[in-house]
Design brief:
This protein starts with a strand and ends with a helix. The protein folds into two domains: 104 residues, no CATH class; 220 residues, von Willebrand factor, type A domain (Rossmann fold, 3-Layer(aba) Sandwich). Strand 8, helix 7 and strand 9 form a beta-alpha-beta unit. It is an alpha/beta fold. The chain is rod-shaped. It contains ten helices and 13 strands. Helices cover 40% and strands 20% of the residues. It has a six-stranded mixed beta sheet with strand order 5-4-3-8-9-12, sandwiched between helices. A three-stranded antiparallel beta sheet has the order 1-2-13. The chain has a two-stranded antiparallel ribbon with strand order 6-7.
Length: 343
Amino acid sequence: MTFQLPIALWALLLVPLAMAAYLLAERRRGAHTARFASGHLMPNLLPRTPGWRRHAPPALYLLALSGLLLSLARPTVPLRVPREAATVVLVMDTSVSMGATDVLPNRLAAANSAGRRFLQAVPAPVRVAMISFSNAAELVAAPTTNRVLVQQALDTMRAGGGTAMGDALALAVAVARTSLAPAGGAQPTVAPTATRPIAGTTGITGTATTPPPAAILLLSDGANTAGQLQPLDAAAQAQQLGIPVYTVALGTTAGVIENPDGSGGPLSVPPDEATLRRVASLTGGQFFSAPSAADLQAVYARLGSNVDYIEEPQEVTSAVAGVAALLLVAGSALSVAWFNRFP
């Protein structure tokens, strides 16, 4: 137990002073009684003495005083509180090929629409982070339950640049890894587990033990053309931590864009479905080519609810004062019941 106002603990010196005053009063009362009756006549005058009951109410009053004075110091204790540990990292491709109009109105708008549907469907306690990537990957929304912040990040997406899919996946794994860490800060070691279908779902993969506390949803349309890391290398990192990566291929083989360098005719930009399938398969996730609302529900359906506990200092002033008040009431009640007096 710690105290926010430790200087107030000096007030506890009043407790031994109050106890000394009570003992002094008891001694004087005994001396006063002895003046009017000899010792051998006392049993005849007072056949029944209160014994220990006489001291019970004052003892409760002293305990109540101790509690009230202790509450002045505003005590705090470390308490274990639950924390929802499920996290989804949304990884959005914003490369130049996302401007292709083979998916109306264009691929980027389709990705934004899919992200909106996901945010509307994911349970409120689940934290969502967002990463956007083109020539480089950037964390635009840290893990949060505030859907407005993630939605605002979605609305800022603009198409342009290359496709650093591998770097984006590695950053997503790092974000998810942080959410996996317990309160003490040690990084967890999560072994991949065998999978089985979850009852009542179609095409959704779940674990045979407990749901994973983190997952990655990757929406992309093209092959890796930028960055330092290949997608499968980043997927191997996710596999080691037991983090499933769900992949969504945006666009069709008919997708074209204007050549960025202005030379030649339109540039074909088919989605790299083969890589996206391998990433999903390697990590225990699932690949989608045309996501519906039900498909996006597969991402968080596997998560379930994963709650851990962290220690947080909690002020217990009201609790201590409440106990002191109960002791005061109890002492008064006993005084009235046994001696017909208050206090």
